[in-house]
Design a protein that fits this description.
The structure is a homodimer. Chain A is of the alpha/beta class. The first copy, chain A, has helices at 22-30, 35-39, 49-61, 75-83, 98-109, 120-126, 128-137, 152-160, 176-183, 208-217, 226-240, 250-256, 277-285; strands spanning 2-3, 6-12, 42-45, 65-70, 87-91, 112-113, 143-147, 165-171, 220-224, 266-270. In chain A, a hairpin with a 2-residue loop joins strand 1 (2-3) and strand 2. The radius of gyration of chain A is 18 Å and the shape is globular. At the A-B interface, helix 13 of A face helix 13 of B.
Chain lengths: 287, 287
C-alpha cells in the first residue's frame, strides 16, 4: 500500500489462523512439553488472542487447555476460544489477579502455565513473523513497525530481523514499554490508565525477557491515541479490504497519523483482526 | 475456514493488487504486445475490476491506458482506476454499447482493445489463480467453486486445474452461463434481468472461448439470490476479517446457503473486494 507517496508493506497477522500472531508462540511453547506434561494439559490467561492461539495449538497437539479470560473480553474471542474446545475460566479485570488464578489451576491440575509473552519459547515463536517478513520480501526491510503489549511479538521480531530498525507502538496511557525503555528499568502501567479499545495491548507489566531484548536493541517507541487507532481500523477496512482490531492497528495508526515517517522501506505489522462485529461496524461508520 | 463441519479453503483474490484477480489476465495480455503496439496504448471496458487490472498492468509496463466505465460503477473502482493514471471514458450502462465505444477509441488512436474475458491470453492469465491453488495446497483440491461473469476466471481455472471438479456461481437472473451450458449454446442475459449488487458479474453475454472451455469440462452451475450474497459478504467480514464485494462473494454464498455441499475437499474463490464503503457498511449492519 502507499502512505504519503511511499510504498509500505503490511504483514497481515489479522489473517492468521486464530485471527492473530499468537498461534506461533503458543505452538512453539507447547512443542517443548514432554509426553507427561502434555497429558496434564496447559493453562493460559489472555483477553483473547493468546487464548485462541493456545487453544488452537493445544487442539492440534491433542493437549487439554484451560484459558483464564477477563469477563469483558470481546465476545468473538470468547467464542473462538470455546470453539477450539478449551475450557474457559472468567475473572474480573479490575479486581482479580489472572496470573494467580492460572497458578492455582496449574497447582490443582498439574497443568503447565503458558505465558503470553514472558517465555523465551513464546518470544521465539512470535519471531517467525520476522522470519516470514524477510522470506516474503526476499530481503530485510529497513524498518519494521510493531504493535506492543507485553512485547513478545516485538522482541521476537527484533531477534529474527537484526538488520531492520524496529519501532514499537503502544496506546496512549498504556505505554509502559516506552516508559520502561526511556527510564532503563521496567515500570508498570499507571493505575489510572485510560480506557482503550486496544484490549490486546492492555498488559499491565512487561517482562524482563522482552524488555531486555528491546532495550539492548535500542528500539524507537511511540504512542497513538484512540482516534488515531480508530482511523487506522477504518482505513484498513475501506482501502485495504481488511478487518483489523484496534490493538492490531496501532502500528498502522502511527504511520497514518504522521507520527512515524513512511519514507524508509517499511513493513507494518497488523497483529490481529479479532474485533466484535458491532464495534467494528461502529468504528468504520464514524469519521 | 469451516462450513457445516467441513474444512473449506478460501482463495482470497479480494486481497490481490487492485482488489481482484483481474491484474493477472491483463498483465498476460499486455505482455503479448510488441513495442509498436505498446506505444499506441490500450483501451478496455469494465465496471471496475478489469479496469483497475488493466490500469495497473499498463502503468507497470509503461503503456497508456483508456478505460470505458459505466457511469454507475462503484466510486472506489473509478477512483482506483484513475489513481493508476488511466484515462476514463464513461458510458450509460442501459443505453450505450461499451464495446462500440471502445472500438471507436481504438480506431481513432490505434490503441489495442483489451477484452475482459474474450481472449485466450486473458483466460490463461486468470488461470494462474488455479496454478496458485494447487501450489499453495500442495495438491489439486477435489472441488473449486468460482464466481462467474464472462467466465474468464472460471475457464482459466478449468484449464489450470484439470483434476478438480469445477462449480460456477452466478447471481439469479444473470445466469447466462448456466443457461448457455444447459442449452448447449450461448444465450444472453434476459433484457429484464433484475438489479443486482454484483456489478462485477453483470456480463450480458459470455464468449465462445469461455463457453467452450466450460462446456467441454462439464462444469456444474448454480445461482444465488441477493440475500444469500449479502449474507456471504457479512459472514466474510464477521468471521474471516475480509472485505469481499458482492460479485466476489457469490461462490461463498452458494456454500453458506447450502446450495453446494461443503463435504468434498473444496476451495472457494473470493474473486474481488472492491466495494464502496457505504454499501459494505450497510450490508454488514443488516441481517
Amino acid at each position: 500500500m502507499r502512505i504519503g507517496g511511499h510504498s509500505v508493506w503490511l504483514k497481515c497477522e489479522c489473517l492468521q489462523t486464530g485471527g492473530a500472531f499468537k498461534l506461533r508462540g503458543a505452538t512453539n511453547r507447547l512443542l517443548q512439553l514432554n509426553q507427561a506434561e502434555r497429558a496434564q494439559g496447559v493453562v493460559a490467561f489472555s483477553s483473547g488472542n493468546h487464548a485462541q492461539g493456545v487453544a488452537i495449538a493445544a487442539r492440534r497437539l491433542g493437549i487439554a487447555a484451560t484459558i483464564v479470560m477477563p469477563s469483558d473480553a470481546p465476545a468473538l474471542k470468547i467464542a473462538g476460544t470455546r470453539a477450539e474446545g478449551a475450557a474457559i475460566v472468567f475473572y474480573e479485570r479490575l479486581s482479580e489477579d489472572r496470573s494467580a488464578i492460572a497458578a492455582r489451576i496449574a497447582e490443582a491440575t498439574g497443568a503447565t502455565v503458558v505465558p503470553s509473552f514472558d517465555d523465551p519459547h513464546i518470544v521465539a515463536g512470535q519471531g517467525t513473523v520476522g522470519l516470514e517478513i524477510i522470506d516474503q520480501l526476499g530481503r530485510s526491510p529497513q524498518r519494521i513497525v510493531v504493535p506492543c503489549g507485553g512485547g513478545g511479538l516485538a522482541a521476537g521480531i527484533a531477534l529474527a530481523c537484526p538488520d531492520a530498525e524496529l519501532v514499537i507502538v503502544e496506546p496512549a496511557g498504556w505505554d509502559d514499554m516506552k516508559r520502561s525503555l526511556d527510564g532503563g528499568a521496567i515500570v508498570a502501567v499507571a493505575a489510572d490508565a485510560p480506557p482503550t479499545l486496544c484490549d490486546a495491548l492492555q498488559t499491565p507489566l512487561v517482562s524482563p525477557i522482552t524488555f531486555d531484548v528491546l532495550a539492548a536493541r535500542g528500539v524507537t517507541a511511540v504512542t497513538v491515541n484512540e482516534a488515531e487507532t480508530e482511523a487506522a481500523v477504518r482505513w484498513a477496512w475501506r482501502d485495504q479490504a481488511l478487518v483489523v482490531e484496534p490493538g492490531g492497528a496501532v502500528a498502522l495508526a502511527a504511520l497514518l497519523a504522521g507520527t512515524i515517517d513512511p519514507a524508509p522501506d517499511t513493513v507494518v505489522v497488523l497483529s490481529g483482526g479479532n474485533i466484535d462485529s458491532a464495534l467494528h461496524h461502529r468504528i468504520v461508520g464514524g469519521g
